[in-house]
């Protein structure tokens, strides 16, 4: 028996990477009885029946799992946002950050196409970079053209399982192609609808890039906060967690409660106003959703 990780699932076969070799495995009938569906990213115990084939005996406990894309044990999310074309959207980034934080996945913010910036837009992006780094996020500025920031990104990928997410047209495929040219991933056109770019991937596959495994799939196609309760939302804003310890009331939602340390920090300019505004709009969105029974 051996251990490995599923890097691809296709037509009832699971492709398990173990010590540098890939085994084409079937799942045992016991999974169907237990209604366990192995996912790409699962760590498994398997029995090799030949040099290239085997069957999966056990799926190890998952660190986390995503529904869309269907993948398990993601350690970090590379959130790619372009500086221009499409324009940088802090609100969309904050939405992604909340979703990633809620799944206990480490976010890495990658700002692409920095070679296209000019004077005024350069200053604006520099302010955002400063703000997010101050909050504690890892931010890398990159260009697939000049290769700037690619070494930094490669270091973050090494030895980890990552999912790459972001709007269509921000250059996700271009960055991966720059890190591993033989991939030749198709680069899609900018789409006006979020995540509706012409992406050709129909199945999830973990690709070896820069010494790590990267999911080749449109990341996080579901961007709703369905699985998050309202009282959990403040926990997914790291700066709110920090300042929130000074609030008068436990369970403060930082909206209208008296002696709220988070609102005081916003007024003092210690928390960016746009981050707080995005938080309020997410609260409003969650209050409007239909109750779940």
TrEMBL record:
Alphabetical keyword list: Cytoplasm, GTP-binding, Hydrolase, Metal-binding, Nucleotide-binding, Ribosome biogenesis, RNA-binding, rRNA-binding, Zinc
Pfam families: RsgA_GTPase, RsgA_N
The EngC GTPase domain, residue ranges: 72-221
Cofactor: Zn(2+)
Keyword GTP-binding: yes
Class of the enzyme per the UniProt entry, highest EC level: hydrolase
Protein residues bound to Zn(2+): 247, 252, 254, 260
Annotated localization: Cytoplasm
Enzyme Commission number(s) of this protein: 3.6.1.-
Chief subcellular location: cytoplasm
Cofactor note: Binds 1 zinc ion per subunit.
UniProt domain CP-type G: residue ranges: 63-223
Positions bound to GTP: 112-115, 166-174
Matches recorded under PROSITE patterns: ENGC_GTPASE (PS50936), G_CP (PS51721)
Superkingdom field: Bacteria
Quaternary structure note: Monomer. Associates with 30S ribosomal subunit, binds 16S rRNA.
Task performed by this protein: One of several proteins that assist in the late maturation steps of the functional core of the 30S ribosomal subunit. Helps release RbfA from mature subunits. May play a role in the assembly of ribosomal proteins into the subunit. Circularly permuted GTPase that catalyzes slow GTP hydrolysis, GTPase activity is stimulated by the 30S ribosomal subunit.
Family of the protein in this entry: Belongs to the TRAFAC class YlqF/YawG GTPase family. RsgA subfamily.
Name of the protein this chain belongs to: Small ribosomal subunit biogenesis GTPase RsgA
Gene that specifies this protein: rsgA
